[in-house]
Every structure is written in C-alpha cells, then in structure tokens.
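Reposting from the mailing list since nobody answered there.

I have sequence plus structure tokens for a pair of proteins and want to know whether others read the tokens the same way I do. The first protein:
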Amino acid sequence: MAGATPKLIKELREKTGAGMLDCKKALNACEGDLEKSIAHLREAGLSKAAKKSTNVAAEGLIAILVNEDSTKITMAEINAQTDFVAKNTDFIELTKIITSQVSSNDCSTKEELLATTIDGENFETYLNGRIAIIGENIVPRNMVNVEGTVVNGYVHLGKVGVVLSASCDDAAKEKTVDLLKKVAMHAASMKPTVISYTDLDPAFIDSENKAIIADIEKDNEERVRLGKPLRNIPEYVSRQQLTDDAVNAAKEVMKQELLSQGKPENIIDNILKGKIARWIVDNSQLDTANALLSQAYVMDDSMTVEQAIASVDASIKITSYERFELGAGIEKKEEDFAAEVAAQMAK
C-alpha cells in the first residue's frame, strides 16, 4: 500500500489534530493505512505525554461552566507549561472539554477525572493524545462542582476564578444571578478567604491579633519620627472577639472620657453611637481583609458586601464560595533560556 499522500495527510490531520509532519511519518510507517496511522499517533502520543509529565505546569487557564437554570456551576484549573500555549486555540478548546467532563461526571479530583470515559475512550488516554498534539504537559489540577438555589461565577483573564451559590426566594432568583456575578468579580479582586467572619479559625484570629497590633505599633514609631498622626491600636481584630462584655467595657471607657471633657450627659449617648461604630471598625480589621461579607463592596464602597446583598433582596444568603488562582502553590522552575537553546542546537 502507498504511504503518505496529500489527501491522506489532510484526512489524518482532521481526524487527530496532529501536526502535518507527524501525520506524514505515521502514514509512511503504516503504509498509508489510516486506522493504523491513528493508532500509531496515539501510541506515540502516550510516549510523548509520559516524557512531558515531569515538566512543571504552572501556566494555563481557569474555566467555569454554568448549567442552563443556574443551579450548578463547575470551575476547573487546567495548567500548561507556558503562557504561550495557554493562548493556543487547541488548549482553549481542551479546557472547555475538561470543564464539561468534570461537570458531567461530578469529578472533584484529577484521579476521578482521568478514570472517566469520553466518546468511549478512557479520558487519561484522550488527554495524553491532546498533550502530544499541543506539545506541553497539561494538568487538570483543581476542580469543583457547586450546586445551589442560584449559582454564578466570574473568571478574570483566565487567571482568577470565583464561583458562588446562594439561597433566595423564588421571586429573587433572576436578580440573584446578576448579583452573584458582581460579588464574584469583587471576590476575584479582593481575595477573601471565607464568607463570614464567623468562619475564621479562632487560632488564626489569636495569631493575627498579635501580629496586627505589632505592625501598627511599629508603624506608629515611624509616624512619631515623621511627625504624622498616630494610628489607633486595636484591642481586637475580629467581631468574633467582640462580646457584649467587650463592647460594653469599651463604651464605658468612652463615656468616662466624654464626661471628663465636660460633655453634657444628654448628648453623650448620641456621641457614643458614632464612637462605638468606629471602635468596632478598628477592632475588626481581620474580618475586612478575609471575610467576604465584611469587605467594602468594590461596586459601591459606601457599603459592605453584606449590605449590598441585602439592598438587592433580603432573602439572598451566600451559601458557598470557591476561589482559584492560577498556579497558586506551584513552585515554578527558573529557566535558563540560552542554555535551553544551546541544548536544542546540540541535538
């Protein structure tokens, strides 16, 4: 049988997505047999994928997929080796396929994903074939499926992804979908770690309490040197710590200070309202940094995210929050480009 012909090369490329040269080699090796050539490319792909599996994959894309009635959302982080490949149309299409596969099979780990099938083929085998064609190690690293009364999410430039779910009254579902998109955009930018301050670990609060106070004290030393106003040093850093006893004790200290300044008792209560509100802000800095609902809303910083949600509909409650940041926690290999080029030329 004849080997590679332009017609067979074209057909093999359409069936496999492999490069022209790889298709030509496969057809020549298999004497023009199309099916054998497909198998040949697949086997070659497995070999190439195995060689690439140790390469660091810290670039890539984050993708989300929302079902038609906005009750389920899937987010997946798919890593590649270079930002260049992350812009490749084949890779972009692959991220959509992987995200859909994660969603349809409710996968929560890479191992679960690789054990699934796609069009009758083992997904790990399918992925290895794509790796061979795209030419880089590709790793589906993080994935999550979230369900709720209403879900939505946002991906910023493929680098940061956020998905949210919420409960709400039936009449509020449509506006909740829109709201969740905006809150997800906020979370992508402001990086909260939990939904509410009540979700913060008490041990974390205690540790940060000491660290924040130490930082402000050090900053105040510099302010003294520069002649700048001093910052207030808080006693606490989270509303978790602001018990009724703590608030009442602070209020009593403020009241005595006002009395010592000669303020009339009939106006002290009104003055105290503003002072205690400011004291609570000063003593909940950890919440502002880490708790989504306590943060100033980026769309309108005159209110918190919690207040912004309530202003849309009082029935809306955030029930889950997930945030992925591309390559987070991956130690990237420092590449010596000149040495890499020299090594390629020496082959």
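The second protein, same order (residues first, tokens after):
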Amino acid sequence: MPWEVGYLSIRRKRILSKNLWVPTRGAFVPTLTPLDLQKRIEEKEGKVTSYRQKCSQVWLLIVANGFEPSTFGELAPEVEEFPFETSFDRIFFLQHADELIVELSTRKSHTGNAN
C-alpha cells in the first residue's frame, strides 16, 4: 500500500448480498499554527494559580493523540521557534500516534495570566 494509507480493514457480513465500501474515518490533517496553540494554552491559563498552590512547577502537555480524526494535527515549522506567552513553566506538545514530543518555547506573560 502507499505510505498515505495507514491501514485497511475488511469486514465480511453474511447478510449483505453486495459489496459495501465505506471510508469510515477519513479526514485531512490540519497544520497547527502558533495562533492555534496559543489559543489552546490560553484556555488552560485560568488553572495555573490553583496548581501553583500545590506545586512549584506547572507544566502543560498538549496531546494530539491521532487515533480519531478530531485529534489529528501536525505542527507548522514556525511553531518550534515561536515564543508562547504563558504563565506555565514549560509546555510540551505530544503527537501520540507518531511518538513525537516537542517542548515549546515560552515567555512569561506580563499579567501572570495570558487571558
């Protein structure tokens, strides 16, 4: 099979008299830009203060598990150099299906909260 095809599954049903072909999980893979990830980080910023009451370091892990079409995503090349504004100490992006983990560059937000 071509490399674009991850796998092919065949199910045979005795009750069907005709062949039935269905692409049940087809989707395109979006490119995640710095703006996309900054929005996701900002959604989590509100919890940092409460986390700091129990921890001295607060890390954020953004996961694209890649097993469902809604969780696909590839990082745009500029993401690795982009300084994300945040009050998290460190931020990681995990592309689970490809076993890729990237630590994102951060800079402290001026207000302590990026929202």
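Reply #1 (J.P.):
I read it the same way you do. Residues 13 and 19 are 9 Å apart (CA to CA).
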